[in-house]
Design a protein that fits this description.
Elements: E1 15-17, E2 20-21, H1 28-36, H2 40-57, H3 63-73
Antiparallel strand pairs: 1-2
Length: 84
């Protein structure tokens, strides 16, 4: 587990799907919440929740490869747990 977990935002930031970003599925309030979470294990739990949200909403297959690329670039190790 890394000390700092990079934001699940993949720098698309267009809120079109009932207030959810078309890039990462977060709402503006979820983005603000993620920034306020300090513990890495809580941040990882948030990302797991977000992946479940993406799965429920559909059309977010592009997110995981983009986030993994971001993790590699930042040399961060985050355990992505598939929901369910």
């Amino acid at each position: 587990m890394s000390k700092k977990v990079p934001s699940p935002c993949i720098d698309v930031c267009k809120f079109r799907r009932e207030g959810h970003c078309i890039g990462c599925s977060m709402t503006k309030s979820q983005k603000k919440l993620f920034k306020s979470i300090k513990r890495a294990d809580h941040q990882e739990a948030f990302i797991t929740m977000l992946m479940g949200q993406q799965s429920t909403m559909g059309r977010y297959t592009h997110w995981a490869p983009a986030y993994l690329k971001k993790l590699k670039k930042k040399k961060a190790k985050v355990k992505l747990t598939l929901p369910g």
